[in-house]
Amino acid sequence: MPIIQVDSVTKTFRLYKKDPGLLGSIKSLIYRKYSEFKVVSDISFSIEEGELIGFIGPNGAGKTTTLKMLSGLIAPSAGSVRVAGYTPFDRKPDFLRKISLMMGQKNQLWWDLPPMESFLLNKEIYGVPDKQYKVVLDELVSLMGIQDIIHVQVRNLSLGQRMKCELIAQLLHSPRILFLDEPTIGLDVVMQKKLRDFIWQYNKKYHATIILTSHYMDDVKELCKRVVVIDHGIILFDGLLDEVIKRYSNAKLLSIIFSGSIPPIHELSMMGTVLSHDENQIKLEVARGKSNEVASHILKQYTVADLNIEEPPIEEIIRSLFSRNKQSHVSR
Length: 332
Ligand SMILES: Nc1ncnc2c1ncn2[C@@H]1O[C@H](COP(=O)(O)OP(=O)(O)OP(=O)(O)O)[C@@H](O)[C@H]1O
Ligand SMILES: [Mg+2]
Description:
- This protein is an alpha/beta fold.
- It folds into two domains: 4-10 and 43-245, Rossmann fold (3-Layer(aba) Sandwich), CATH 3.40.50; 250-310, Alpha-Beta Plaits.
- It has twelve helices and 13 strands.
- It has helices at 21-30, 63-70, 93-98, 115-126, 130-144, 159-171, 189-206, 217-223, 241-248, 265-269, 291-301, 314-331; strands at 4-17, 33-47, 52-56, 78-83, 99-103, 177-181, 209-213, 226-231, 234-240, 251-258, 273-277, 281-287, 304-310.
- The strands form three sheets. The protein has a six-stranded mixed β-sheet, sandwiched between helices.
- The radius of gyration is 25 Å and the shape is globular.
- It starts with a strand and ends with a helix.
- The chain binds adenosine-5'-triphosphate (ATP) and magnesium ion.
- Adenosine-5'-triphosphate binds at residues 13, 39, 57, 59-65.
């Protein structure tokens, strides 16, 4: 049975409108005009225990809103959410002990206190027994390599140090289900990689279920086999990342290094789009179904030192998926 089950969930926010000026304020006290704004629209998906899923979409797509519904911060307007057998919005203590929501964009630690104090507070909130707390904390602190900073005021930490502490604070009660909302936001590539490795290990070691949102495709590529793609509150795709590539990309990239200088560009552009070239190298975009044919033609026709057939960058494929959705929104 899936550990997370989302059925036909919709979330509508009410936006109150007020006419400008004092009169507008007085009028709005008497009767309030509002419009309803659907930010998540009839979404359904299910997740099995131990899965690590990428939840991706452009700004304002509804990712954070969905994670908030899954973790019980807000209630869905319609539809049903079940997580580990609970209805999240009931916020039963047993449910809250099983989950964790980390928001990279929000500071969840006490700003004026060292992280250690926030850790202790969370220990009390979740009723983590002393012994377990010590074992888990020691393990997380050494895994993250932050022994030196847990007694430094949070306001004095670097972004990367703070994010590591944020993650630890959310993991002290050993949650089985993690909602990680942009856990690597703003980090440099080295730090991103460290956090990513850590998330990977947590998933494998504890068979934890993880939903991760990120605008960095490297996070998604390295961590998630399955992705759920959302835009304008609608799920555009749910399946294997490899499948996104197959389904939404009509092209492949040929990287060719010639033994001597490159052949005339017009000859190559008959076979595809020349994306870039220099003295002896060229990148050619060709139709997916034609890539093998074009490659063998080039190998026969010219003296080639190296030839690779590659998938276009996943960033581009996802971007084209969103822009198709934008067009269909406009025409609706
Ligand atoms: N409490 C609220 N009241 C009204 N509108 C809201 C509220 N919370 C979110 N929204 C709106 O809902 C939409 C979806 O927001 P959400 O934060 O879920 O997007 P997101 O996919 O997480 O985007 P990002 O990648 O920028 O974090 C946005 O248009 C946002 O303005
Ligand atoms: Mg968000």
